[in-house]
């Protein structure tokens, strides 16, 4: 009968495993608009369901740039920030696996040899050999909540890894586009400098025959030298961008050289048009939102762990072994010893320690809920920002392209008038400078549009482009 009592207690403990002292996790609710403010063609509604996204889409392929694709492939493999996040993910998986260990009994072996003396008695020896096992019954859900917390943390680190990948990809793509725009700016300045040099020669020839003044030569020289200075200054900025790209792909600046690749006609560049979809889909696509939501689940489970500590724990212990003062007789039947029985332990007085820990866990949960909601609305804002920016920059580009067209026409007409002696060289300087400014502004707008298109796809969680224009 005495041997049956522990089994009865085990059965009671197993039946009690269904109990829990904290409520099951539910995702925080958040009201989102039915469509983006800046995407008026989007309609409908989709119920938000946060999930761990898979950011594996090669969104950058929409730009059809082999150099960019090669650099991003290297970054995905060698970037150190990605490697850190990947190691954190593996750590999260290991911790989640460790949280499941208490589901089964822990078994340990032991062996000992002790020699000692008591009072005037002679020295004596004691040898021991055996195994012991212990198992905590999950009466109040402490173990189950620890497992839930570990799994939620592992999911969060997986989303962190995806978010870091997106961040690195975004930084590299935007830096690369800035570099190509600078290459285009450099090409424009070099071409303009050649044009200004021809104008200088024309002015010198006119001076030699008495048709121009020294002032006009000085103006032409000043215009040429300023343009050459700007071209030299661009090389400094380009070098820094190239160095930044090297670091993003896990290399030293000395190991990377990117050949100059200016754009041709910037008005022919295709910009990916992303599917803005609905605001609720951000909860499914963006890894930073998924990570924040998983940390809410983790915090909720930690409350269950903290509250379970307020109640008694029931553990079952068992031991079997041998003990004797002689090695030769150690494993004989008379030297056998064993024990089996439950242990019930609970707090009596801890000066509010466990309650304070529970209150702290609840406060952490409230903070993670607020952080999750903040992440969601910040994500919606990023989409809105870039939708608006792309729309406005597209309109700017159209107007700026028109300005370039008319500036070129003004240069041709003014230079012809100058050659005919109808116009002064000051007028030529003005229209040439105006054209250079207009062309540089168009390149700048193009670079901003490229960066905004990247930012929009990242804001959407690595969205697949649906078209290009």
Give a short account of the largest sheet.
Answer: 4 strands, antiparallel
| Structure summary, number of beta strands | 6
Number of domains: 1
| CATH fold annotation | Outer membrane efflux proteins (OEP)
Helix content: 55-70%
| Category by helix and strand content | alpha+beta
Task: From the alpha carbons, calculate the radius of gyration and give it in angstroms.
Answer: 37 Å
Give the C-level CATH assignment: Mainly Alpha
Q: Quaternary arrangement of the chains shown?
A: single chain
Shape: elongated
> How much strand content do the residues show?
5-15%
Figure out the total of helices: 9
Structure report:
The protein is α+β, with helices and mostly antiparallel strands and 469 residues long. It has one domain: Up-down Bundle (Outer membrane efflux proteins (OEP)), CATH 1.20.1600.10. It contains 9 helices and 6 strands. It has helices at residues 4-16, 66-78, 80-99, 142-208, 214-248, 282-285, 287-308, 353-419, 425-459; strands spanning 106-116, 124-137, 272-274, 313-324, 336-345, 465-468. A 4-stranded antiparallel β-sheet has the order 1-2-4-5. Strands 3-6 form a two-stranded antiparallel ribbon. Strand 1 and strand 2 (124-137) form a beta hairpin. Helix 2 (66-78) runs antiparallel to helix 4 and helix 7 runs antiparallel to helix 8 (353-419). The longest helix is centred in the middle third of the chain and has 67 residues, at 142-208. The radius of gyration is 37 Å and the shape is elongated. It is a lipid-anchor. Keywords: Lipoprotein, Membrane, Palmitate, Transmembrane, Transmembrane beta strand.
